[in-house]
């Protein structure tokens, strides 16, 4: 047999089967094995055609078909025509089902679905980094969620936590000397979230932060009068925007995230903008404790 040919047949993209065939072929010093992929097979006619081609070319068929009926047909057709057909995934599915007492879904393409989910998470994490701490106001209108709060109110860790839930989050610090970006007042209803924290708790957090940096914990940053000024300005911004407030004084990031996700997932739609005369918008303000 001069030609070394393997038909890779799959009811999905066929990447898994092709990788297995390549791994097996790499164990031989002889000339490379040619691989022809036949992806997204949905009917028995196509399977029969592949078997006929494999017989004509003295080829092997390696396949990943999750639907039992399709697997059985291909194996029977190959046996009838004297073609070698190797089931890569079927036996493992059945063994796992029996041993673990689980019922398979028998749905093609689930690996691809998982891959897409993974990349959505990576995209959300990168988004949170890019639009952290008000670095680029353009991210506000692109975000699924916007967090606002004074310094040390957990905006950054909360953004990252929500990003791992595949939500794109931008956060904006509220500072008395800096006017909030105009995009903050254009966010759609229910997309802006904020956290409130008690002055005493914030003072303690800021002093510990300064100590960890080897700085004087009596600096203006950790001064009670300054903290009250910042929180008062925060209240003004909240009233201007029309935000609801979540008190995170004694809440872990996970607890706050849970509150936000319940509100988000309870909404049917998340408009990216609002009408200028829409005074009903509500914003949940999430303060963060930067670590």
What does this structure look like?
- This protein is α/β, with parallel strands linked by helices and 291 residues long.
- It folds into 2 domains: 5-100, Aspartate/ornithine carbamoyltransferase (Rossmann fold), CATH 3.40.50.1370; 118-285, no CATH class.
- It contains 10 helices and 9 strands.
- Strands 6-5-7-8-9 form a 5-stranded parallel sheet. Strands 2-1-3-4 form a 4-stranded parallel sheet, sandwiched between helices.
- Strand 8 (243-247), helix 10 (253-265) and strand 9 form a beta-alpha-beta unit.
- Helix 2 (44-56) packs parallel to helix 3 (68-81), helix 5 packs antiparallel against helix 7 (155-163) and helix 7 (155-163) crosses helix 10.
- 34% of the residues are buried.
- Its EC number is 2.7.11.32, 2.7.4.27.
List the helices and strands and how they pair.
Layout: E1 5-10, H1 15-25, E2 34-38, H2 44-56, E3 60-64, H3 68-81, E4 85-87, H4 90-100, H5 110-130, H6 138-142, E5 145-149, H7 155-163, E6 169-173, E7 192-196, H8 199-212, H9 224-241, E8 243-247, H10 253-265, E9 283-285
Parallel strand pairs: 1-2, 1-3, 3-4, 5-6, 5-7, 7-8, 8-9
Keywords: Kinase, Nucleotide-binding, Serine/threonine-protein kinase, Transferase
Pfam families: Kinase-PPPase
Family: Belongs to the pyruvate, phosphate/water dikinase regulatory protein family. PDRP subfamily.
